[in-house]
Amino acid sequence: MRILISGATGLVGNVLIKQALVDGHEVHFLTRSKAKIGFHKGIKGFYWNPNENEIDTACFEGVDSIIHLAGATVSKLWTKKYKAEILNSRLWTTQLLVDSLKNINHKIKTIVSASAIGVYPPSLDKIHDEEDPVASNSFMEQVVVDWERAVDQFSDLNIKVSKLRIGLVLARGGGVLATLKAPTQFGLGAAFGSGKQWQSWIHVSDLSKLFLEASSQQWEGVYNAVAPEVVTQTEFIRQLAKGLRRPFFMPPLPGFLIRMMVGEMSTLVLNSQYVSAQKVIDTAFDYEFPSLEKALSDLL
């Protein structure tokens, strides 16, 4: 299978490319940097600039599936200007792909797009599945609703659409794990707010395999890209401290303090989302890291 990947140079994209090559796939990837369009065995880069509506349409040649990861990180202070970038980076990249495919002949059968569990309203007792109604009641909910609606346009081009709502991604050398690891190594690991909020997470290796499985099996619809085990934030930090062989005794950092420091962005760590992986489990997908203990053991 030949796959076109947007957002290929990010935390997930790098792991995804390696896994795709291990599985015997060919990879085309899109990049804003012409310096990164190097040719490697099985990998071929193509320039695009969504801000200027530019794309090298040769990227679509021979492609069977698109994996769409492009979008500005949400782990940066949410100023009014940056919130617009978070949303527009997802909508503009999606629209550019859609509009480009309208005007060319292609053999693309499916697109698998990143999405986020941030679309589900926060709750300490509700278990969310893919059938739950969603609405734009918060910034992150608005981003995901608009993003998924934009991705749905591919179905008008006779391309099967699947959307993976991704939980907290655990990876070596970056992302949330790197942020939490630093204070925990010094015995200063602490939960945020009450610490009772649920954390739905996934190991980056399982996430990469999930994208490839959805592509090869031509999944359609929404799937929660989370591990089967969900833990509270306090339990998450406790297991992280245990994995690092450090003490865990710090009380949770008060929610009001987090809100004072980062404003609306605090919802990323204070919101509780218990998200079901049952739909993915029912596909017989084989998680390599179904438990947090096993994931942390690998990553630490």
In short:
By secondary structure, the protein is of the alpha/beta class. The chain is 36% helix and 20% strand.
* Mean of pLDDT: 94
* CATH H-level homologous superfamily name of the domain at 2-166 and 203-226: NAD(P)-binding Rossmann-like Domain
The end-to-end distance, rounded to whole angstroms, is 33 Å
Beta fraction of the residues? 15-25%
Structural description of this entry:
With 300 residues, the chain is α/β, with parallel strands linked by helices. The chain has a domain at 2-166 and 203-226: 3-Layer(aba) Sandwich (Rossmann fold), CATH 3.40.50.720. It has helices at 11-22, 80-102, 139-151, 175-185, 204-216, 233-243, 255-262, 267-270, 278-281, 292-299; strands at 2-6, 26-31, 39-40, 43-49, 54-55, 65-68, 110-116, 127-128, 160-166, 168-170, 198-199, 201-203, 221-225, 231-232, 274-275. The two termini are 33 Å apart. The relative contact order is 0.14.
Give the secondary structure arrangement, pairings included:
Elements: E1 2-6, H1 11-22, E2 26-31, E3 39-40, E4 43-49, E5 54-55, E6 65-68, H2 80-102, E7 110-116, E8 127-128, H3 139-151, E9 160-166, E10 168-170, H4 175-185, E11 198-199, E12 201-203, H5 204-216, E13 221-225, E14 231-232, H6 233-243, H7 255-262, H8 267-270, E15 274-275, H9 278-281, H10 292-299
Parallel strand pairs: 1-2, 1-6, 2-4, 6-7, 7-9, 8-15, 9-13, 10-12
Antiparallel strand pairs: 3-4, 4-5, 11-14
Helix pairs in contact: 1-5, 2-3, 6-10
